[in-house]
């Protein structure tokens, strides 16, 4: 693939959205482009957006699947608000995404799919390619399908296979346009189709044809470059939140020196964690696909009772089903990690769309006074560290911990600075092996004075045979007790032991140091809030940002921080669940800002809202 | 021979060793006392150390059982004991894990976990105390109560047809299925013995009298005047006959799918079926399970089915063992390698 003879322009950032039918391979195309971009050293953030249906009717609006990638020569926080480039593989993809494009954006369309029938499917009476409605954009009509078939004519592959390679033609074209290194894509194709050399050849040829088309056609007169970002030295890989979470659980097992037992029931968008962990049995990890959500957590709790690091992964509906077992784990005071990859609810809601509306359930969604620890990762790569932190708290303080991820961080990706293993915390704890009471008695509810944790005496330990259960237990002995004073004591003790878990103070990002407005977030809104704050500061509007990782217990300095600002704004992808907690607990007039569209906040949305608060109070 | 993965103790234990210090709090006269005493007396026979024995239960009268055993134990939540025990057993092959449950716990709220534990053949010994009533909630009909049962919640009689627990277990691919009665300690212990020696799920239904809410439910099988005509004692390798003088026989009539009871004197050319619990085809055990309806007219007790199939625990442990071949260094080294796998790039 020869040297470009065309004009090269430098850009500092680009947002590209690949959109097509669910069967067009847009997730894969986006993924490959991201990987090429990562190799180049740009900072990246991605946002996949796909329907819950595996194959919605072809060519329809509900069947549109897209993948957005934002890359830049500086560090970025979000996948970008509006694409500079849209690749639309059919009329539905154009129609579904056009509204997000700024004027002048590049639109590359696959003209072969703009047939009368396909246009009619999405309600176009006249082709938008011909009626002038796209005049405000840089439209690039490309006969993607027929050129792909043409390029593969001599390879003798079936027409269907040739047609399916059109996404590689698109990838080749975009890779040329943005000067991406493509060696990793070639390697990927060789791996993916290892058993079908004909498909390796077809996809490589399609990629090459796309690249060559860019180089030769006059329609694309400019080629772009985005220089590597200045990032902290080290080794990076691109990672999604779900993959990082799975690796975090592997790391937690290694650093706890414990076997990991994952009980899980398939549910979108959490299943990938099960898939990933099931590959790593060599670390002593057992994964069990249980018969239902209740069995999944039950098995994890049984394994925790037996001395394993018990984990269950799910999404909101699953957490609802697990509630009773979580309460049992609270009563038994056993370590357990519950991962909720939140999605839009209630009920089945929108399984592939994001939301943060399970916070109330995580904090309060159980019968009785049933407190536990809750933490939330702020970005895809942060899921790795959050998983280790969840396991650390669970093991050390002998409690269930809920980790609140969401679809946005779970499927989004970013470059991850790989940690040095030696920098990861040692989270190992010792089982109890000796009696702790007088006369060699064992008291299963005699607490460690520092951590308030009870002994973890696992079956198989001689001399410590004991019975635990969901009935209220007497302090120290763990015997069944209906004594009123004991119940009051145990309820208060369970609350206190969670409340007294030490968590790090919350940090404030306030470079101007004179901000009167604090924006407080939690979980996956970190990126868009951060991007909005940066934009405001660049415009001379001071604003402070604080982000909660620990939602229960809350950081000890939070009250003081909140009271130091005139105004506290809390953006959330729910109807104000954290705001409610903050208002109740700290008696401040926090301002909620809420969006429940199933999509993450755009930086622009938050920038507008925050600008108004900063200027007008 | 109990599972080879469970270590045995050289110490000779007695029934007393298995009694916990907790006061037993079932109603006076409850059938559970007899079962508890039978289990405590039987456990030392296994030679398994107390610390390697775990009783897991759900909710209900029967589920208080673990508190009274001086072993490890967990009184969990309604219906979920098989799921919890599965996680424990699959991750700890050195433990002998027993599940104690009742007809409401196992067959109503926990039906799903029961069938899946049996399907997987988890190495659990599941003791289902069937008293055909809800005791702890004070007397509602249960999934094994007979059709038309009049209770507090069904004053006009229940409209639910009952489960046949053994048929259900067999339908769930159980490898070991047996039935016994609380009042017959010798028989109960013989069934427990066989269950303990079975590798995989052993499902034991124990007819248990609730003298408060369903007294005499199994009287026809206990009363010396009636039991011989109703109780069929299954013995491996023996023709299935019953009655004080063996006047009844179980036969497989030509052309029929199932088994029937005939007067022995009128068999003609037919011969009684010779019991073989090891028959691989579950149709035989299923046919046996169908001999008794909810009227208990002709009720077999003993081991219905006892066949070998790899246990879930074994298969899971084998996968973990096999994966050890991929161990390339210390866990930290392997973790580092895992994190650095795939497409990485380095910034200097």
TrEMBL record, chain A:
Residues 259-477 form the Pyruvate flavodoxin/ferredoxin oxidoreductase pyrimidine binding domain. Gene3D superfamilies: 3.40.50.920, 3.40.50.970, Pyruvate-ferredoxin oxidoreductase, PFOR, domain III. Transmembrane segments: none annotated. Keywords: Oxidoreductase. One of its GO terms (biological process) is response to oxidative stress. SUPFAM superfamilies: Pyruvate-ferredoxin oxidoreductase, PFOR, domain III (SSF53323), Thiamin diphosphate-binding fold (THDP-binding) (SSF52518), TK C-terminal domain-like (SSF52922). Residues 23-210 form the Pyruvate/ketoisovalerate oxidoreductase catalytic domain. CDD domains: TPP_PYR_PFOR_IOR-alpha_like. One of its GO terms (molecular function) is magnesium ion binding. It comes from the Bacteria. This is Oxidoreductase.
TrEMBL record, chain B:
CDD domains: TPP_OGFOR. The keyword Oxidoreductase applies. Keywords: Oxidoreductase. It comes from the Bacteria. It holds the Pfam family TPP_enzyme_C. This is 2-oxoglutarate ferredoxin oxidoreductase subunit beta. One of its GO terms (molecular function) is oxidoreductase activity, acting on the aldehyde or oxo group of donors, iron-sulfur protein as acceptor. It comes from Actinoplanes auranticolor. InterPro entries: 2-oxoacid:Fd_oxidoreductase (IPR051457), THDP-binding (IPR029061), TPP_enzyme_TPP-bd (IPR011766).
């Amino acid at each position: 693939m020869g040297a470009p003879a065309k004009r090269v322009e430098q850009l500092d950032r680009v947002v590209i959205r690949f959109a097509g039918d669910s069967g067009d391979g847009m997730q894969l195309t986006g993924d490959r482009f991201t990987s090429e971009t990562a190799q180049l050293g740009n900072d990246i953030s991605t946002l996949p957006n796909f329907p819950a249906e595996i194959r919605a009717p072809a060519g329809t609006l509900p069947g549109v699947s897209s993948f957005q990638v934002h890359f830049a020569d500086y560090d970025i926080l979000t996948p970008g608000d509006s694409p500079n480039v849209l690749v639309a593989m059919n009329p539905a993809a154009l129609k579904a995404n056009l509204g997000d494009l700024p004027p002048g954006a590049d639109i590359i369309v696959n003209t072969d799919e703009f047939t009368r029938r396909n246009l009619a499917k999405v309600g176009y009476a006249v082709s938008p390619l011909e009626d002038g409605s796209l005049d405000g954009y840089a439209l690039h009509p490309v006969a993607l399908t027929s050129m792909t078939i043409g390029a593969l004519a001599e390879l003798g592959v079936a027409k269907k296979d040739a047609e399916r390679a059109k996404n590689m033609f698109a990838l080749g074209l975009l890779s040329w346009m943005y000067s991406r290194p493509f060696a990793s894509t070639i390697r990927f194709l060789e791996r993916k189709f290892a058993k079908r050399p004909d498909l390796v050849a077809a996809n490589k040829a399609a990629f090459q044809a796309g690249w060559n088309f860019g180089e030769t056609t006059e329609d694309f007169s400019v080629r772009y470059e985005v220089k590597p970002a200045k990032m902290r030295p080290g080794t990076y890989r691109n990672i999604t939140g779900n993959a990082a979470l799975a690796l975090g659980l592997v790391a937690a097992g290694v650093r706890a020196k414990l076997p990991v037992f994952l009980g899980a029931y398939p549910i979108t968008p959490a299943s990938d964690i099960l898939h990933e962990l099931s590959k790593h049995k060599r670390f002593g990890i057992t994964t069990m696909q249980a018969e239902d959500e209740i069995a999944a957590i039950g098995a994890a709790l049984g394994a925790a009772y037996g001395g394993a690091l018990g984990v269950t992964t799910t999404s909101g509906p699953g957490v609802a089903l697990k509630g009773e077992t979580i309460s049992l784990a609270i009563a038994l005071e056993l370590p357990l990690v519950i991962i909720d990859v939140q999605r839009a609810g209630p009920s089945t809601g929108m399984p592939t769309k994001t939301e943060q509306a399970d916070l109330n359930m995580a904090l309060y969604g159980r019968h009785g006074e049933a407190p536990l620890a809750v933490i939330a990762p702020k970005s895809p790569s942060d899921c790795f560290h959050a998983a280790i932190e969840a396991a650390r708290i669970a093991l050390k303080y002998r409690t269930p911990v809920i980790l609140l991820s969401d679809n946005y961080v779970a499927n989004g990706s970013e470059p991850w600075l790989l940690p040095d293993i030696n920098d990861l915390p040692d989270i190992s704890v010792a089982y109890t092996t000796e009696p702790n009471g007088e006369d060699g008695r064992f008291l299963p509810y005699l607490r460690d004075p520092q951590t308030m944790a009870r002994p973890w005496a696992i079956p198989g330990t001689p001399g410590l045979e004991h019975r635990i259960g969901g009935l209220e237990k007497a302090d120290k002995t763990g015997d069944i007790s209906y004594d009123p004073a004991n119940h009051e004591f145990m309820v208060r003790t369970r609350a206190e032991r969670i409340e007294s878990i030490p968590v790090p103070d919350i940090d404030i990002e306030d470079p101007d140091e004179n901000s009167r407005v604090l924006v407080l977030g939690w979980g996956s809104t970190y990126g868009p809030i951060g991007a909005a704050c940066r934009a405001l500061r660049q415009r001379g509007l001071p604003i402070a940002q604080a982000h909660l990782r620990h939602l229960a217990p809350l950081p000890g300095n939070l009250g003081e921080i909140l009271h130091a600002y005139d105004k506290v704004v809390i953006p959330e992808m729910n109807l104000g669940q954290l705001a409610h907690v903050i208002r109740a607990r700290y008696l401040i007039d926090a301002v909620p800002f809420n969006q429940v569209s199933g999509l993450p906040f755009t930086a622009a949305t938050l920038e507008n809202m925050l600008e108004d608060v900063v200027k007008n109070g | 021979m109990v599972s080879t993965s469970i270590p045995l103790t050289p110490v000779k234990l007695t029934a007393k060793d298995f009694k916990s210090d907790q006061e037993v709090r079932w109603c006076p006269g409850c059938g559970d006392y007899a079962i508890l005493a039978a289990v405590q007396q039987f456990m030392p026979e296994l030679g398994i150390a107390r610390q390697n024995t775990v009783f897991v239960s759900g909710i209900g009268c029967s589920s208080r059982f673990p508190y009274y055993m001086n072993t490890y134990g967990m009184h969990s939540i309604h219906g979920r004991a098989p799921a919890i025990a599965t996680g424990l057993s699959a991750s700890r092959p050195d433990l002998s894990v027993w599940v104690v449950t009742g007809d409401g716990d196992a067959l109503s709220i926990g039906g799903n976990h029961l069938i899946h534990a049996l399907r997987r053949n988890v190495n659990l010994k599941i003791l289902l105390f069937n008293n055909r009533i809800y005791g702890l909630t004070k007397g509602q009909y249960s999934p094994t109560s007979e059709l038309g049962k009049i209770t507090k919640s069904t004053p006009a009689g229940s409209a639910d047809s009952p489960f046949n627990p053994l048929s259900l277990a067999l339908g769930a691919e159980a490898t070991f299925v047996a039935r016994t009665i609380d009042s017959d300690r010798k028989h109960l212990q013989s069934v427990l013995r066989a269950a303990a020696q079975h590798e995989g799920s052993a499902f034991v239904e124990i007819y248990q009298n609730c003298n408060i809410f369903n007294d005499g439910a199994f009287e026809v099988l206990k009363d010396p005047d009636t039991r011989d005509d109703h109780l069929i004692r299954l013995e491996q390798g023996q023709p299935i006959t019953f009655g004080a003088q063996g006047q009844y026989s179980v036969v497989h009539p030509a052309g029929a799918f199932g088994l029937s009871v005939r007067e022995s004197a009128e068999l003609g050319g037919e011969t009684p079926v010779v019991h073989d619990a090891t028959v691989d085809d579950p149709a035989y055990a299923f046919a046996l399970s169908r001999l008794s309806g909810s009227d208990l007219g002709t009720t077999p007790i003993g081991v219905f089915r006892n066949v070998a199939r790899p246990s879930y625990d074994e298969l899971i442990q084998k996968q973990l063992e096999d994966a050890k071949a991929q161990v390339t260094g210390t866990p930290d080294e392997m973790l580092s390698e895992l994190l650095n796998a795939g497409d990485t790039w380095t910034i200097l």
